[in-house]
Amino acid sequence: MASSEAQHQRLSKKKALATFSSDPLSSVAYATEEILLILLLAGTAALHLSIPIALTIIALLFIVVFSYRQTIYEYPNGGGAYIVAHENLGESAGLTAAAALLTDYILTVAVSVAAGIAALTSAFPNLQPHSVFLCLVSIVVVTLMNLRGIRESSTIFAIPTYAFIAGILVMLAMGAWKLSTGEFTHISPPELPIQHSLTLFLLLRAFSSGCTALTGVEAVSNGIPLFRKPESRNAALTLMVMVGILAVMFFGITFFSHFHGIVPNSGETVVSQLARSIFGTTVPYYYVQFTTMGILILAANTAYADFPRLTSILARDRYLPRQLTSVGDRLVFSNGILMLGLASAALIVLFQASTHALIPLYAVGVFLSFTFSQIGMVKHWFAKRQTGWRKKAAVNLVGGVLTGIVTIVITVTKFSHGAWIITLVIPLFIWAFTCVKKHYVGVGKQLSLVGQNPEQYESPMQHMVVMPISGLHRGVVEAMRYAQSIAQDVRAVYVNLDPTATDRLRKDWDRWGKKIPLVILESPYRSVVSPLLNYIDEARAMNPREMVTVLIPEFVTAKWWEGIFHNQTAFVMRAALLFKRNVVVTSVRYHLD
Amino acid sequence: MASSEAQHQRLSKKKALATFSSDPLSSVAYATEEILLILLLAGTAALHLSIPIALTIIALLFIVVFSYRQTIYEYPNGGGAYIVAHENLGESAGLTAAAALLTDYILTVAVSVAAGIAALTSAFPNLQPHSVFLCLVSIVVVTLMNLRGIRESSTIFAIPTYAFIAGILVMLAMGAWKLSTGEFTHISPPELPIQHSLTLFLLLRAFSSGCTALTGVEAVSNGIPLFRKPESRNAALTLMVMVGILAVMFFGITFFSHFHGIVPNSGETVVSQLARSIFGTTVPYYYVQFTTMGILILAANTAYADFPRLTSILARDRYLPRQLTSVGDRLVFSNGILMLGLASAALIVLFQASTHALIPLYAVGVFLSFTFSQIGMVKHWFAKRQTGWRKKAAVNLVGGVLTGIVTIVITVTKFSHGAWIITLVIPLFIWAFTCVKKHYVGVGKQLSLVGQNPEQYESPMQHMVVMPISGLHRGVVEAMRYAQSIAQDVRAVYVNLDPTATDRLRKDWDRWGKKIPLVILESPYRSVVSPLLNYIDEARAMNPREMVTVLIPEFVTAKWWEGIFHNQTAFVMRAALLFKRNVVVTSVRYHLD
What we know:
The structure is a homodimer. By secondary structure, the first copy, chain A, is an alpha/beta fold. In chain A, 63% of the residues lie in helices and 6% in strands. Chain A contains 21 helices and 5 strands. Chain A has helices at 13-26, 31-39, 50-74, 81-89, 91-123, 131-148, 150-181, 200-210, 219-222, 231-259, 270-279, 283-316, 334-350, 355-358, 364-384, 389-414, 419-447, 474-486, 499-512, 529-542, 569-577; strands at 463-469, 490-496, 518-522, 547-556, 583-591. Chain A has a 5-stranded parallel beta sheet, sandwiched between helices. In chain A, helix 6 runs antiparallel to helix 13. The longest helix of chain A has 34 residues, at 283-316.
């Protein structure tokens, strides 16, 4: 696709909602379950606390979103946490936010795909042994779709997102109707053994697990340039609609699950149990399961839009290898997409596709980036001091302080269950970023022409040609002609492995050698390459001229695989010469039919 | 090791016996069992036929060996079946013999290693589930030992070979002693269900399975140049001693197994059962098992000496890629050794390390090569007609006809059990040999200077330089100096990906461009490589001169892995230019600290 088509690839609000909301909305498929799983440790009696925890999380969600809305208007070119933190709080803060977000994007893919396959295996338990395989297939499919380009993907992704929203809302409405008709009554959950007393720590752990519902809401602020004009307004509207739907679904699922005494079990998800108890095992039940799987697998797509965009920004700022900046033939950052696919597939294998095992690693990164981003905005308002800055600064300050506290709560309560991995990975990423930056700065200095003078480079370069040959044939004779056209001082070098062949060559040289001196090298250990390299080293040491051109005559077979029938000496020579200074390597090829 | 050390690597008779006899002698570890396994199909009553079958095989062995003795004297430089058949019967016969031998060498490794591990698991049944893994470890060890060089290996190999011979002979003597004292009495084998009537076909199948005992006797005739002087006499003597020992052990094991009513079972080998019944489960029993394993695993060594030697001869004659002729730093044919290791490891995995499953594939090749080799000798005597040629021709004729009949018997009786694979592989190998030969002959013709005249190549070559650049830096400026030293017509080519950067370059070019024309290429699809390639193609098409030198300025990072931080455009360019005619590729490298 041509660069000029980029504007047409922009997203309408409806499509943007589908693209960016699959991640946050899909988290309702596991957030309630993760809260219940922790509360369950304190026995059945603790389960009712899921309602206040869910309400707290929803409150937090609205605070974060109001805070983020301000960023969207202030950073219309994309106000990811990295940019906001970097600009307002400096390099370290920016890199911390970036590292935090990268870990979170990888986990978004792994958790979403694992939960999506769990929705499938809840409906079809005999697929459960194949979970890891099914997850990997899903990652491959999503990766390939993203390599093909964003607009085509979003058309496909709009359907499952709206289908999921419709399914869950109908389910909740049906539940409310049955509740009102008395068909649906309160059921007490089964009595289960108490493994842990109901401490504040346990409550906070349950809250931390539920906070995964907030992951993904930052996606809109990173993706503003993908919206149609006016970008900021469309993005802010989309964000508000999304959060409203999210709050309704999350509370609804939590409420009905508790009301109906649903308890997590390893074979079936909470949402599946809820759908089964509202609909029975009927067509609508399967509809909910399939759309849940659909939105979860496609939720990974949000990360596929954001991860490569963030790595390309980091690469542009020289914190990551510059290959990550290159937009592929289809206007996507292909290298970043592949990296994300590989990293999330590794997590799936490592954690055996268990949502529950992955959750403790999740959300640490996103809340850390929330915090840096909003504190950065506070600093931004203080620096700018335009009309109404105090109110705006206050909103961001509340958001930043709250998410900062939540970050600490999540890290502490989940530390021993996996969050420690993230506390190691984030500094490791930051270290890598700074190493890469240091490398590029160093290279830039060495290559820079600043302070240099063209006169220094005025004199023509002096060089001699060393031409290793394996015998006399047409390719070699052509190479000799080329050698004589580029230098006065040309030497052919031959390694004596077989005295008979050497004598024959010496004899033929008089006729074919074009007066080029023939140097015969001895090789007691039958190696071809090392005597040649020694000779080149001597030439470099003894020659007063600046450069040694090593001219390698090669013949190229008509079919590439026929190359295996010939010695790879040329290849070995090139590799061996790679790190030698003042050596130019020239390949003169003779093409065979 | 230096080439001059080759003579010191020659083998004494004792060491040669150890090196060459491990293959034939070790076959007694499974030959009897394979005969019994087939006879057992016709029920217990058929088992006594193992005695006449073993005697027939021993008679065949002596006929083959007398026939081969004549080859050893006539071909002191190594009279492998390939050489004898090729010289006397022509190319097709030679290639057939070679293909047959190669299949057999691979099977020697696979069968020997599988049987060796079976000896181990007979003594330690809890290792049985790990058979495949243990076989692969053995192959890796033997391969590595062979890569280190032959003499060192033979010193190591002498010990287990003699230890095995001693162990089996003591076991047979002990059996004979116990027999004479009446301590050891005849036991009837257990009654087992009859699955197959005792047909001539079944008898021939049992005979075919036992013929594996003859595999490996040809190794001496291939390896004559490895013997100390006088090579032929020493080789012939070694062969006779080896065959004598083989006959005694094979008959002894078959006799006592029958006498003691031993029946093959899947968990324990026949030799293990025999050793247990003669010695009890005592130290001597374990000694027999360990030395059996030792000689079998090391029997693979015979193939490791012969396979690379045969492939190097075939490569010298241009039937295989020439890399196989190159003797490594330690005077061994490293590539052949690696090929053999890989092929036999593949067989082990495919056939799950089961000796019994591999046996039907075995011996077809070796008997085919016996036949071609001896018929070749008959023709040789007829052509030479020196004193006593009639007698010599008669000996080889008897050998050739008999082994020819046996080849047919083996192929027919084992066809459906696996021999069909070999009947496919041998023609496939022959086809590959002729393709490779054809390729080399074709290349040789195209490169040959025969009929060419030096005057044709007199005129100096005309060329222009195209220098792709990614910007202006010190490396590029140095490359421009080099370019101006090798040609008059130099052009710098830049791909416009970012108009701002392009404008900056244009401005700087006036100062740094050394009057070299700067060509700016547009790239609507953001590709760097394809506009450059198009430009080079145009230059080739429009330029009246003969050659286009593509000069690629590169910078080399101080550490190789730092290369990943930079675009690999140079690498992609080189690969893309590989198949373009009249293009010389030159890399001018700027080294970074």
